Fold this protein.
Amino acid sequence: MLVFLVSTYATLLIGHSVGMHRKLIHRSFDCPKWLERLLVYLGVLVGMAGPIGLVLIHDTRDWAQRMPHCHPFFSHRSPLWLDALWQLNCRFEFQNTPEIQIEAEILEDRWYQFLESTWILQQVPVALLLFLVGGWPWVVWGVFGRVFVSVSGHWIVTYLTHNPGPGNYLVPDAGVQASNLTGYGLITFGECWHNNHHAFPESARIGLQPNEYDPGWEVIRLLKSLGLVWNIGLPRGEKSREDLLLVDFIK
């Protein structure tokens, strides 16, 4: 259980939230290339997709949610059971596929190309190491249990934060508004403050208020103190928020 808890939290927090989401997808801070690749590798171990595939999935969903009319597959407003069926088992096929441009820096990176073609197999070295140290129980909890909880947990947070709830910002004309999942900062690595993130995708800090705990931000602060992170993005100033409306609750 300890192997499961540590490996799940570490890969989701350091790998997915900090590495994949805030760094690779949103470019909200700069760091040495070796560190970026290490963070992304840990994100691949979460078990959702390769780095290029995850950027494509994320950007496609963001594009769809900012359209005035968003398909239920991307809005997450269908019943819980139906959204689970779609998100965990199905692939959306467009009649007219949107053009999603991924930076050449990502597409042409050989390490990312390698991870993209082998992302499922990256669990094998982890499983072998765990088997040598602790046998099959460590493999079951450190690989199978971890991947199951990570993927399904990521989906449920995504579902809940795209349904009505607390939030301070409204993005006009967007078909889908995000909400904050109050009180779950610790176990969601700060990703629960999703209304903040939709308003300020450029910000490496997602939990903006004193009571919005953001473990991902704490990791970035630690890396900054070690001189490994710089050019950290923060929410744009008050005079540059003409694209936002202040509200109390997202409907």
Notes: The first strand starts at residue 165 and ends at 166. The beta strands are 165-166, 169-170, 245-246, 249-250. The mean pLDDT is 94. The two ends are 39 Å apart (CA to CA).
